[in-house]
Design goal:
The structure is a homodimer. Chain A is an alpha/beta fold. Chain A folds into 3 domains: 92 residues, Chitobiase/beta-hexosaminidase domain 2-like (Chitobiase, domain 2), CATH 3.30.379.10; 330 residues, Glycosidases (TIM Barrel); 136 residues, Alpha-d-glucuronidase, C-terminal Domain, CATH 3.90.1330. Helix content of chain A is 35%, strand content 11%. In chain A, the strands form 4 sheets. Chain A has an 8-stranded parallel barrel with strand order 5-8-9-10-11-12-13-14. A 4-stranded mixed sheet of chain A has the order 1-3-2-4, with helices on one face. In chain A, α7 links the parallel β10 and β11. The longest helix of chain A is centred in the C-terminal third of the chain and has 33 residues. The relative contact order of chain A is 0.09.
């Protein structure tokens, strides 16, 4: 399979160009691209300590433009900025930029065998059958990342299985060095996920107890050797004590004990230890209505606030559960003031349509980033916290779990590339609007023809809301099939061990997570707790996440819960059909290959959306016995079972 | 892995005995076993045309016993009868026997790769990695079969995939000949499942159209060659036009066209063509409440009654759907008076606990066999029909889908062997009671110690009723997990394409299959249709199979539907616990290995039974809003959702 340059298609590298062996070479190479895009300017660049390390300025004068960077990486980012300006506006203006988020990271869930956990875009382009490769595609990947400011990449699955456990050994280090050099030429640091039990599986020890000196010694030696081979290695990402993965709990140690032990091995080399907060009981009994998975991360990590070393970063999923539509922001962002934090979002659309559904996630991520944590008097947004407003050591940032695979277009769905592009842009500059980002991406990918661009921007901006409408209005998630997480299945997880329930009865729906329920709402600061405790002040998008409400409860929008469920599910499908029709109007203006692929995905999305609409509406119509006030088609078995609200 | 002689453990072959090369040798060998069991008699045998071919007489005189058979097979059956008598009663009395059912057949769903579809007892002992073997175990299998009168075996899956398509070719015929010789020594005919599209896949033709002369020619040549190699080959079993399998429909031909074409190839050699009636639409839309899978087999085959050749036998599953608990008897047994029929039951416990649950199926099969079809004035039971009362050509019988695998004890669960044993006995003599059969099996397998035998008989006899109570009282089946068909999942198939729905709402449950519903009940003769159309005369076990009833409907037993659901689910678990406790009382009297295995299965069964009880009760409590009159533990989310019936 080949690969497409997607949003860089209008900025091709010179034919026959060699891969840059250093970032200085990459700058020269990219400058040649810039020159080919515009002869109206004489282009030059300068690395200067006057600017922050990754910052840049584009200084445009009469017939000339200088790109200043705090480092070669800064210069590179400046060149890409100028390329973007030229492609979108045909000219360049002066700008001064520095990245908001110190770490702008991708997390790949690639397995060494070549499969990708929650990947919907083909197989891994890093791994195949246990072998790691560095090739043309790897360089193309690095260039795409750099063009949107991504500066860190974790190439293997957080669930470290089999061969991947050996990445930290000489079996893989020589080729990892080549990969790190490729990444380094584009300002990207290589990170690896490690198996917490590697001291046993690789080291031959009997233990992985973080307080056992020989375990610490194993990691010290292992890390020292990694840095010997890869001097600019970034560090580790660890999923421990979660979903069957090993961790410090096995030895009666805390999460901090585990993280700090690894961090101490990395510290001498400037390495970072990123530790996921995705720790919960995945063997819950569905009969137990008191245990609430949403509480788990905060309950686990809040007591450890301040106990982590400076080079430890806790990576927190945007919501308290797992990338569901309609989750509130994780309360860990409010409660860990003495700990370095990083936000984890998911560009891989595990629960948002698996790249069969268009689902532009920037609006959702922006909602997370601008959420007021109420934890500080000023600068209390999630974006402030993960960009280091209160902890300026640079050990913070944003990570996206991404599923780029070996499909020609990298992301399976052409439109899904907007999430990759947008993630980078948003990390750099959170104040960019979702529309600005969509417009940039559409213009770069499909040209600045205003009809196409306008429609694609419309499609992207509408997509999340539409997906939410036909899948999870009011914040009830997880109504999907077990394991593959696709498609509607109202009770898919209802009687299972994963702690994710809607608990619908014939009278009511939702989980009471207020102070008088599971108590989850009280993990937030008082102002937020009060807001979430009251259904009248709870945002509609999270309503049934926080409250168990009768179907007849009247929501702030004046509709009953059941009518809102019906309406949103019907509207979602109707709005989707409108979107699809609008794309049909620009057939011929989009290249045929891309148009065909987009339409194929739309066909799958529409079929799936109808299935969501009909199953959810039918389930709740049968369950509640309340008919649709508008008498649309719902598959109740018999009309006699139903009562209808007054019109 | 080894294998155990299970119910033949007290009748071992002489040490070092060679495998019999013919049925005459098998008779001599088995006679030596008989002699070793009792020196009180001088044993001799005689083959005589005075008896029906498979019939026998044991004639006991003073110090001598003669075994007469209508053939060597008859003698063999007589010897096994005498062995059974000796082992169970320490003596022998004269008997005269002939089999009720002409064909007494096992259907194995073994794939050529060694896997077994719906197998719960290890891998295939016929196939492994595409290779078919004949070895000690094959002979042991044949002897076990012969000891209970089984005279036909289909060794490969009805879904004929991959290598199995080539069984009818020289790739496999030499070893199949060895297998047929092994079987033949024990009076068993070898049958094969064939792929209806073999003319394409193996024959290299472009078509499998049964009316295409070159297709018929392919089969004629293929069959002639099979009989050249295996002169006593039995014939074919075919699953066509079902669940994605190829068939005559592809070419616009009828099921009769397909079957007769194959039958004509087999006829010159006395071969039989067994054609499954399991044809239905497996891509149904759950929204469509008018299409009823239960109607499919009758709708398909009834119009073809009389159109099949004499050596075609239609193989009909016991119920209209698929081996569910609580299904009524298939109306095809009532409506195909001019066609040879064979009953198909399932010893492999696909839907009856997968050998983790004790589920003695003889009572269920007996219910089927003694069902009055109302199709004839006399001899109108299913047993009459499949034993040839109205079609004496010998082309009829009973088949059991079985899952014997390479587990030491053949059937995974020790107690599941009672279904294999019992199937053979029941085919031979349908009037044997379930208790007699259980008692024979328990005595042969675990000795005649009265305490053990009494308890095992009690366990077996109670098991089906208990399983029905906690899984599918009132005849609602299919509340299991998709694909693997294990464990409770109320909505597992409710919104799927398989045509198997319960259609529960907050008011009612069940599918209306009466004359005013899907019309299924009118596939039966008038007397039965009238009975099934009226819930007051419908047997409780089929109540919700035929009727959609409000939860508050009062059943013939005086309970409401919802209360009956609660009561049966609680009772099922309680009765199971009692059974388990009763087996504990005979610990030490059962060999430790078997006892441990039985208890391990009981532990799995009990955990699963509790899950069934709690999920089903919870689902219907939440759904109906009606509490348990006895206030037992059900996991409704909140008491406020419930109303309770008057005490």
């Amino acid at each position: 399979m080949g690969y497409e340059p997607i949003w860089l298609k209008q900025a091709p590298l010179p034919a026959g160009a060699e891969h840059p062996a250093s970032i200085a070479e990459a700058v020269e190479l990219e400058l040649s691209v810039l020159r080919s895009l515009s002869e109206a300017f004489v282009w030059s660049y300068l690395v200067t300590e006057a600017l922050p390390e990754e910052g840049y300025e584009v200084l445009v004068g009469e017939g000339k433009a200088d790109i200043l960077g705090g480092s070669y990486a800064g210069v590179l980012y400046g060149i890409f900025d100028a390329e973007r300006q030229l492609l979108l506006t045909d000219t360049v203006v002066s700008v001064s930029e520095r990245p908001a988020s110190p770490l702008r990271m991708l997390n790949h869930w690639d397995n060494a065998d070549g499969s990708i956990e929650r990947g919907y875009s083909g197989l891994s382009f890093f791994f195949r059958d246990g072998v790691l490769s560095v090739n043309d595609r790897t360089f193309a990947y690095a260039r795409l990342c750099a063009s949107v400011g991504i500066n860190a990449s974790v190439i293997n699955n957080v669930n470290v299985f089999k061969d991947a456990t050996w990445l930290i050994t000489d079996r893989y280090l020589p080729v990892l060095r080549k990969l790190a050099e490729c990444f380094g030429a584009y300002g990207i640091k290589l990170y690896l996920c490690v198996n917490f039990a590697a001291s046993i599986e690789v080291g031959g020890l009997a233990s992985a107890d973080p307080l056992e000196p020989e375990v610490a010694e194993f990691w010290k030696k292992t890390v020292a050797h990694i840095y010997e081979v890869i001097p600019d290695f970034g560090g580790f990402l660890v999923k421990a004590d979660s979903e069957g993965r090993p961790g410090p709990y096995t030895y009666g140690r805390t999460q901090a004990d585990g993280a700090n032990m690894l961090a101490k091995a990395l510290a001498p080399f400037g390495g970072k230890l990123i530790w996921r907060c995705f720790v919960y009981n995945c063997s819950q009994d569905w009969r137990d209505v008191t245990t609430d998975r949403a509480c788990a991360a905060y309950d686990t990590f809040r007591p450890l606030d301040g106990a982590f070393d400076e080079n430890v970063i806790l990576q927190v999923k945007n919501g308290p559960v797992d990338f569901q539509v309609g989750e509130p922001v994780s309360p860990l962002f409010c409660g860990m003031k003495n700990t370095n934090l990083m936000l984890e979002v998911q560009a891989a659309q595990e629960y948002t349509g698996q790249q069969k559904h268009v689902c532009y996630l920037i609006p959702m991520w922006k909602d997370v980033l601008r959420f007021h944590t109420c934890a500080y008097e000023k600068a209390d947004r999630v974006s402030d916290i993960v960009c280091g407003a209160h902890r300026p050591g640079g050990n913070c940032g944003i990570a996206a779990v991404i599923n780029t695979g070996d499909d020609d277009n990298w992301t399976g769905a052409d439109l899904a590339a907007a999430n990759w592009y947008g993630f980078g842009r948003l990390c750099w500059k959170p104040q960019l609007s979702a529309e600005e980002i969509a417009s940039e991406w559409a213009g770069l990918t499909f040209g600045t023809d205003s009809a196409v661009r306008k429609i694609l921007v419309k499609v992207l901006l509408a997509s999340y809301g539409i997906y939410e409408k036909y899948t999870a209005p009011l914040g009830i998630g997880w109504m999907c099939n077990p394991n593959n997480h696709y498609g509607p299945n109202v009770d898919g997880y209802e009687y299972d061990r994963w702690g994710t329930y809607h608990r619908s009865s014939c009278k009511a729906i939702g989980v009471d997570r207020t102070g008088t329920g599971t108590g989850y709402s009280h993990q937030y600061p008082e102002a937020l707790a009060a807001k979430f405790d009251n259904p009248e002040t709870t945002p509609m998008a999270h309503m049934l996440f926080f409250h168990r409400l009768p179907y007849t409860y009247v929501l702030p929008n004046g509709k009953t819960v059941i009518q809102h469920i019906y309406d949103t599910h019907f509207e979602g499908v109707e709005e989707l059909m409108d979107l699809i029709e609008s794309v049909v109007t620009v057939q011929g203006l989009i290249p045929e290959k891309e148009y065909t692929r987009i339409m194929e995905r739309f066909a799958m999305q529409l079929a799936s959306a109808k299935e969501w609409r009909d199953r959810i509406n039918t389930y709740y119509c049968r369950m509640s016995g309340i008919g649709d006030a508008k008498h649309r088609k719902i598959y109740a078995v018999s009309e006699e079972d139903l009562t209808y609200p007054e019109a």
